[in-house]
Specification:
Low-confidence stretches of chain A: none
Largest sheet of chain B: 5 strands, antiparallel
CATH topology of chain A: particulate methane monooxygenase, chain B
Oligomer: heterodimer
Shape of chain A: globular
Mean pLDDT of chain A: 90
Strand order of the largest sheet of chain B: 1-3-7-5-6
Structural class of chain A: mainly alpha
Number of helices of chain A: 12
CATH class of chain A: Mainly Alpha
Largest interface: A-B, 90 and 98 residues
Mean pLDDT of chain B: 91
Helix content of chain A: 55-70%
Radius of gyration of chain A: 22 Å
Distance between the termini of chain B: 55 Å
CATH superfamily of chain A: Ammonia/particulate methane monooxygenase, subunit A
Order of helices and strands of chain B: HHEEEEEEEEEEEEHHHEEEEEEEHEEE
Chain lengths: 258, 406
């Protein structure tokens, strides 16, 4: 692809530093090597900060991941960067990469933070503070964008699956912690037991929001109901953030580059 | 260079060490400390132990009748907690009046509660351990602290539990290998997708230009191989999610949702009321660090009563002539002979005006003098009366406080 492009013609007043196609390609690769790591660092920073502010304890502690709030709050906050940068990368570069790349960056930043801050500094065991996995949601988002080549269908199908699949995607990791135990005549899950035994001075039991809501119409089907509800809400959410990406793509500075 | 590094490391360790020592008890507003929860009779079963040894912290507390109206009440939602720097200890058991405090509860103002917290040492170090009560909407109300020294090898720490299905698990590591495996699988799959597109490098400038040149035909930049790859990745991802879910369901067929709820704690029987006290006037003279409280005291009992102690905001002002008390350690906030009482003892059946003076630098060093900056300027304290047989009776006093600046 790059070979098809001719080197830029030198204007009468300036002289191009690129003499031939090979040099041009080398310059493009050097540009990639500079820009892509910076973008990765930028995504790690802004996504982990954004996620810490909006999801925070729901992702920090295993005893916060309930069936009602965690699968609802998480996709709504998680779809922001894939939505915005998904639009930008597709619209400007035809790269279906933003979903996976942003969530990979979040994953790396989260693991670094949990290991350094929660495990080494604060002494919590890693099996209590591991970050959930969301990479599959980014892959689904990107693949649907690639296959449909449509923001509408990506928002509809990708956004829906994004919300729908948070819980089943993480269930293989979470299930062992939902096994019941007994403590002083009270039934708990293993996760609850960890939350009680590993002292958190500033996080009393009542701060957790465990299934506080009225969405119990379908009896025991708490998780599927929340997942479907999260999916529907996330369709609108994804479209909203793609629209923000569209506004960003219209920015004057990008037009000037073009 | 290495000297600079050593200095930086030393400074960092010093900062960490000071953070371990302080829980911000002095930073809390004096009115909150004085008018929310009165803590007393704090005991620790030991002050030196090794990793895996157990320690019991026990004592009593009374939610104040003068709880400030501008903060949420303890009668709504509260949780008995322990102030330690992270999980240096693990909490094995906590009870208030015998009721397990695994869940949240509420406490009634004016009632007395006995608490106990049993813990196991996890990390070596020297820790200032405080009981505390988290109150929803108000925050932590911190009790008095004790220094606890933990020695031993942190690697030797063990914390086992038995599930209701009969399996013994190690809470320090349970489930983590599984988490790591699944996280690594998804990360590598995502990374391979990134590498697939990165393999087309250079991608930024050429694709940007090509996209611009192709305009509405920009989708031609996506090759058939790209679409096939996308389809394969989508299929693998969906299959792995469904497969993983089925695997987890088969591996852990019995699970329960996270547990929550609230328990009720019956207050302790207060017994017959032997003494009542009503605050008439409270003046705090700032230059002298002296609190003067005038009150009406009625002795309903059959023995004369003397005032042995006034406790306010975790500070203990002791009348040594009645009941000598020594600090348990260097940070135990006891002013050993700082309470002066006028017009006491109170004979049986008599009501009289008593004036007490609590004079000590603790008011200043514990930042209680900022009480004049409170929005309600009310204070409260717990008085401990002793009869001639040495029996103790506690009663709360409280009301508005007037500062004296001269």
């Amino acid at each position: 692809m790059a070979e098809d492009s001719a080197p830029p013609p030198a204007s009468p007043s300036t002289q191009s530093g690129v003499a031939n196609l090979a040099e041009q390609r080398r310059a493009y690769i050097q540009f990639d090597m500079l820009v892509i790591p910076l973008i990765v660092l930028l995504f790690m920073g802004i996504f982990s900060f954004h996620f810490a502010l909006l999801v925070g304890d729901w992702d920090y502690w295993v005893d916060w991941r309930d069936r009602r709030w965690w699968p609802l709050v998480t996709p709504l906050c998680l779809a922001v960067l894939p939505g915005v940068f998904g639009y930008l990368l597709w619209e400007r570069l035809r790269l279906p990469l933003a979903g996976t790349l942003t969530i990979l960056c979040l994953t790396v930043a989260s693991w670094i933070s949990r290991y350094l801050n929660f495990y080494l500094f604060a002494d919590f065991p890693m099996n209590m503070v591991w970050p959930s996995t969301y990479v599959a949601l980014g892959l689904i988002f990107d693949c649907i964008l690639l296959l449909s080549r449509s923001f509408f269908w990506t928002g509809l199908a990708g956004g829906f699956l994004f919300g729908l699949l948070v819980y089943p995607l993480n269930w293989p990791l979470l299930a062992p912690y939902m096994v019941p135990v007994e403590l002083h005549g009270t039934m708990l899950t293993v996760a609850d037991l960890q939350g009680y035994e590993y002292v958190r001075t500033a996080i009393p039991e009542y701060v957790r929001k465990i299934e506080q809501s009225t969405l119990r119409t379908f009896g025991e089907a708490v998780t599927p109901l929340t997942a479907v509800f999260a999916g529907f809400v996330n369709i609108l959410n994804t479209w909203l953030w793609m629209w923000v990406g569209y506004l960003g793509a219209k920015a004057v500075w990008i037009r000037k580059i073009t | 260079m290495s000297a600079v590094l050593r200095w930086l490391v030393a400074m960092g360790l010093a900062l960490v060490a000071s953070a371990v020592g302080a829980h911000g008890e002095k930073a809390q507003m004096p009115q909150l400390r004085m008018s929310t929860v009165h803590w007393f009779d704090l005991e620790v079963s030991t002050t030196k132990l090794s990793v895996n040894d157990e320690i019991v912290v026990r004592g009593r507390f009374m939610p104040s009748m003068h709880w400030p109206h501008h903060v949420e009440s303890i009668e709504d939602t509260a949780f008995l907690n322990i102030g330690v720097p992270g999980p240096a200890f693990v909490r094995l058991e906590s009870r208030v009046n015998g009721v397990p405090m695994i869940r949240s509860t509420r406490f009634f103002r004016g009632e007395t509660y006995e608490f106990m917290i049993r813990m196991k040492a996890r990390k070596p170090g020297r820790y200032h351990v405080h009981p505390l009560i988290n109150v929803k909407g108000t925050g932590p109300i911190i009790g008095p602290g004790r220094w606890i020294e933990v020695g031993g090898d942190p690697a030797a720490f063990e914390l086992k539990a038995k599930t209701l299905l009969g399996r013994e698990i190690d809470l320090e590591s349970y489930g983590f290998a599984n988490v790591l495996g699944w996280s690594a699988f998804w990360f590598l799959l995502g990374l391979s997708w990134f590498v697939y597109w990165l393999w087309k490098c250079p991608i930024v400038i050429p694709r940007f230009k090509q996209r611009d040149e192709l305009g509405v035909d920009a989708d031609r930049m996506i090759t058939r191989t790209d679409r096939r790859t996308g389809l394969i990745y989508l299929a693998v991802t969906l299959c792995a999610i469904v497969g993983g879910y089925q695997y987890a369901q088969a591996s852990y067929p019995i699970t329960t949702p996270l547990q929550t709820g609230r328990v009720d704690v019956p207050p302790a029987d207060p017994g017959p009321r032997v003494v009542t006290a009503t605050m008439v006037e409270a003046r705090y003279r700032i230059p002298g660090r002296s609190f003067r409280i005038e009150m009406e005291v009625t002795n309903h009992g059959d023995k004369a009563l003397s005032i042995g102690e006034m406790a306010a905001g975790n500070l203990r002002f002791i009348n040594a002539a009645v009941k000598p008390v020594q600090p348990a350690d260097e940070d135990d906030l006891v002013a050993v002979d700082s309470l002066r009482v006028e017009n006491a003892p109170i004979p049986p059946g008599e009501t009289r005006t008593v004036v007490i003076y609590a004079d000590d630098a603790l008011w200043e060093t514990q930042r209680m003098t900022t009480m004049i900056k409170s929005p309600d300027a009310n204070v409260a304290a717990l008085l401990f009366f002793y009869d001639t047989d040495g029996r103790r009776h506690h009663v709360e006093i409280g009301g508005p406080m007037i500062p004296v600046f001269g």
